[in-house]
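#random but structural
TW: two for the price of one
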Amino acid sequence: MRPEIEQELAHTLLVELLAYQFASPVRWIETQDVILAEKRTERIVEIGPADTLGGMAKRTLASKYEAYDAATSVQRQILCYNKDAKEIYYDVDPVEEEPELPPSLLPLLHRLPLLLLPPLPLPLPLRPLVLDLPLLLTTLKSQLWIF
């Protein structure tokens, strides 16, 4: 086949394929229904230059599936590769280790809560009666909550 005819056929094929692509429906709504309702997908990651389909999926979730997700306790994530790479790869920031205290301060730390407690509002008898026990427990609980 001659190159001119080959080029003309390639051009015609390209135009026909593009026309078919633009004329065919995308059926994005039905695709979302399958992904979100039938498969109950909880994590969707869009890989592309922009968060286009993820944005549409977020709007669909908010308008159509919010009550369904709340009723079935489904928590979904719509992530985009460009923005959410740390969450996609489960990268976490390194945790800074706390400096260790010298051993001489450790016994004082165990007594610190007792030193910070305010005085009890009621005088506590040394041997409470059984009837006074709920009052004593309430007083002690309130002291613990104040701390």
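TW: number two ↓
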Amino acid sequence: MKNLSCIDDQYFLRNQLPAIFFYRNNVAMKGSDPVKVIKEAISKALVYYYPFAGRLREAPNNKLTVECTGEGVIFVEASANVSLHQFGDFLYPPFPCIKDLLYAGPASGVILHSPLLLFQVIDELPPCMTNRLDI
């Protein structure tokens, strides 16, 4: 068990924070499966950052700790029928259908006993994003 610092264990920080990042294909990676590359990189990083594969628990006095259970993170692969290049440089918040883009994990909104990290790789964007641009 690893105790969170007083800075990290503030009550108002006890929530999940969704973040979305868009990346264009790198021509130097042609022939590589980006999902496989990302999955392998996460796996290698978790060797050194193993607490991220654990779960948050609440100790006495409402103190949060990370139990290094090795249960892992959630990795979701998704696809859609729109490519990122169709958006040009238009990828700035607010996104019209963020809830349609992001996977809602088994315990979305709950931080205790849930995976600390969730990764989702979408090969292409969903149709709701194209409606914003009338593509």
